[in-house]
Every structure is written in C-alpha cells, then in structure tokens.
Amino acid sequence: MVSPIRDIKQLELLKMYLREKSKRDNLMFMVGISSALRISDILKLKVKDIWDGKMPKDFIYLHEEKTGKYKRFPITDNLEKAIIDYMKEYNPKQESYLFFSRNGNGNKPISRQQAAYILSSAADFVGIKEPISTHSMRKTWGYWAYKRGHSLALIMEALNHSSIGMTKKYLGITQEDLDGVYREMNL
User: Fold this and answer.
1) Structural domain boundaries, residue 85
2) What is the pTM of this model?
3) Distances (CA, A) of 74 to 18, 33, 142, 180
4) How far apart are CA 176 and CA 91, in angstroms?
5) Known catalytic residue at 170
6) Is residue 114 domain-resident?
7) Same domain, 57 and 16
8) Do 49 and 97 have their domain in common?
9) pLDDT for 100
10) pLDDT of 93 higher than 90
11) What are the tens digits of pLDDT across the range 95-116?
12) What is residue 177's predicted lDDT score, i.e. its pLDDT?
C-alpha cells in the first residue's frame, strides 16, 4: 500500500528535485498533488486542457475514467508556475499530450509504469522511506486537505469516494495525527 507524503519538508524537497530534473515530470507531480486525480486521468491530459495558447487556463475540466463523473478544479498558483515553466521548456502543440513519451513525438503519453518509476525514483533520491507511487499524489492531496482542516465530507466528494469511512482509511490517519488533535484541543 502506498502512502501520502506526510512530511511537508519532504514534499517540498520532492517538488524542488522534480523541478530541476524535468519540467514534464514536475508538472505531472504538481497536477497530481493539486487535483486529487488518478494517474489514468492525469496521463490523458493534453496541452489544450491547461493552456489557452497564451497562458494557463483558470480551471481544468474532465470526466474521470474510473467513475465517469465530471470534475473541475482550479489551477492553483503553484500549478500555474509549473505550467509556465513547462511551456517555456517544451512549447508543445495544443493537441500534444502533456506528459508525452519521448518516443512518441507528443502523440502518446508516458505509461503508468513510467510515471510510477519517475515518482518512486525521485522519492528515493530525496530520502522518502515510505512506499511512493502515482497514487501517492492523490493521497497526498487528501491528507493535506485534511491536515489543513477541510471537512472529510468535502474531501470525500473531491476524491469521489462513496463514504467518509473509506476516505478516513484512504488518508491513512495515524495515531500521531490523533495525538495531535488531543494536544491541540487542550481543553
């Protein structure tokens, strides 16, 4: 079972490493931790989904592959910076896949396996000990939404889960998280 990235310093190190290593890989990670999307939906994105030809769009719209549900999410400031860096580096055509395979001239995305390898290698490089894969991006979004005080009901909705119980299990809430609640309450 893969984990969310619970340590904010490790999260920032991973972002910094990916930003320096590859603008494509960095953008993939930024979309993942900014959207709560599954990797199958991330890899289907095309340039036209995030870029209007001159600047980043305000929102990304799609239908999730697994659920068939419509999803819209805003492009955050950090995600916008990653998009601009990506566009400056690659200047791709509007119809190209964002996360293009270097073998396909923008006509096909990288594989799920390649995306998993990119993330797990980067996590190893920055010293993250927990198992990290593509699903960690989605779990990281949920975990940090929870840590920042957003309701489990909203997080459940964003993740398209069918119950709050499923969302709690998915977030991997630890005893340390619960201890923090008790300490913070300090009534």
Assistant:
1) 8-134
2) 0.91
3) 22, 12, 16, 30
4) 45
5) yes
6) yes
7) yes
8) yes
9) 92
10) yes
11) 999 999 987 666 899 999 999 9
12) 80
What's the structural domain count of the chain?
2
Q: Which of 23, 135, 139, 146 is catalytic?
A: 135
Catalytic residue of the set 86, 97, 143, 170: 170
44 in a domain, yes or no? yes
To the query of whether residue 138 is one of the catalytic residues in this protein, the response is yes
Kindly state whether residues 130 and 38 are assigned to the same domain. yes
Query: In terms of domains, do 13 and 102 share one?
Result: yes
Decide if 163 is inside a domain: yes
Q: Which of 66, 102, 148, 183 is labelled catalytic?
A: 66
Query: Does residue 72 have an active-site annotation?
Result: no
If asked whether residues 89 and 150 sit together in one domain, one would say: no
161 catalytic residue (yes or no): yes
pLDDT of residue 106: 61
Query: Of the candidates 96, 10, 2, 112, which has an alpha carbon nearest to the alpha carbon of residue 47?
Result: 96
The DSSP element (H or E) to which 59 belongs, if any, is: strand 59-63
Which tens digits make up the pLDDT trace of 152-180?
999 999 999 989 888 988 887 778 888 88
Within a domain: residue 46?
A: yes
Task: Indicate the pLDDT class of residue 131, thresholds 50, 70 and 90.
Answer: very high
Q: At residue 58, what is the residue type? A: D
Q: Which two tokens stand for residue 22?
A: 């590859």
- Taking the C-alpha atoms of residue 183 and residue 73, their distance in angstroms, rounded to an integer, is 34
148 is catalytic: no
Catalytically annotated residue among 6, 15, 24, 38: 38
Q: What is the pLDDT of residue 104?
A: 64
Residue 135 a catalytic site member:
yes
Q: Are residues 40 and 60 in the same domain?
A: yes
